[in-house]
Recover the amino acids of this structure.
């Protein structure tokens, strides 16, 4: 069977998804086609065209994730929590109407990458910087009682945004009785605080800017992760952490490949190992 796949978004020409999925397919001897589809007007119309011409599954990126949420006829639990869909799969017909399962693989992809990197999670104190869509996406896995995290502090310019996210997720995620959730602004982060893991989920690295946190916080951390990725794997944030002797510093390329791996599993039943593909994509980026 050939899986006919695609990624929808705008802009879309620089999407790495076709390369990532072709690399997975070649590793597992599977046959896929994977195209980039630019959505200039309505997502639903483009998706109808794709699925009526044999499309089996697709990824959806900015700005179409809410359109894909509406398009899905059924949602996975994690898509319901995220209230955004980045993966669709055709599941058959009911009363002659095509059915589509909508999923959100961003959080699971991030979590898969933390596990690949042996991020210390059990019993750890985690600091997340930023409270946008990226933070909403990565929180459910970290908050789940099975992850055994001790505390999660989210810092943002406005704490109201954080409280809203916490309230919403606490209704949907089984956090267990002991997880401490804290909302903070940047000014309230004190140099003597200890976080084992610091995750930068702001958009600051994109503009080569650093979050305003005390440098001591880096020095105390064992593991630092920036959701932003670069050609060589270092961002302004990971460079800062490395200069303050944090041993384990990573950019977000592994999360990008991780979310793709989770989509690939939804379509084909195979969860790819991401290590080879991350190395391959890094080498492609370095040649660009
Ligand atoms: P997304 O929703 O896709 O994650 P976003 O809405 O642009 O992206 O938000 C990214 C995060 O970066 C937000 O938490 C934002 O902080 P606010 O909620 O206070 O807006 C954060 N961010 C962006 N620019 C920032 C800056 N100059 N200083 C601190 N945080 C910043």
């Amino acid at each position: 069977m050939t899986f006919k796949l695609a990624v929808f978004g705008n802009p879309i020409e620089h999407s790495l998804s076709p390369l990532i999925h072709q690399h997975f397919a070649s590793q597992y001897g599977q046959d896929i086609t994977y195209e980039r589809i630019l959505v200039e007007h309505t997502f639903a119309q483009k998706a109808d065209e794709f699925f009526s011409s044999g499309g089996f599954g697709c990824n959806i990126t900015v700005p179409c994730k809410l359109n894909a949420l509406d398009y899905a006829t059924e949602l996975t639990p994690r898509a319901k929590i995220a209230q955004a869909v980045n993966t669709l799969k055709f599941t058959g017909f009911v009363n002659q109407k095509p059915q589509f399962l909508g999923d959100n693989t961003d959080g699971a992809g991030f979590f898969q990458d933390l596990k690949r990197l042996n991020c210390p999670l059990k019993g750890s104190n985690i600091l997340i910087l930023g409270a946008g869509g990226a933070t909403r996406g990565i929180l459910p896995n970290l908050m789940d009682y099975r992850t055994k995290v001790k505390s999660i502090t989210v810092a943002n310019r406005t704490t109201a945004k954080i409280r809203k996210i916490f309230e919403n997720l606490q209704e949907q995620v089984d956090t267990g009785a002991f997880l401490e959730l804290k909302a903070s602004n940047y000014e309230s982060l004190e140099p003597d605080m200890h976080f084992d893991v610091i995750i930068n989920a702001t958009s600051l690295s994109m503009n080569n800017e650093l979050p305003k946190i005390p440098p001591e916080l880096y020095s105390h951390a064992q593991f630092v992760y920036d959701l932003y990725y670069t050609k060589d794997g270092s961002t302004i944030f990971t460079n800062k952490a490395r200069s303050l002797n944090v041993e384990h510093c990573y950019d977000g390329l592994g999360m990008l490949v991780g979310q793709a791996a989770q989509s690939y599993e939804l379509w084909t039943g195979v969860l790819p190992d991401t290590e080879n593909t991350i190395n391959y994509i890094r080498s492609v980026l370095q040649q660009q």
User: Anything to note?
Assistant: Residues 130-134, 156-158, 161, 202-204 surround 2'-monophosphoadenosine-5'-diphosphate (CB under 6 Å). The mean pLDDT is 97.
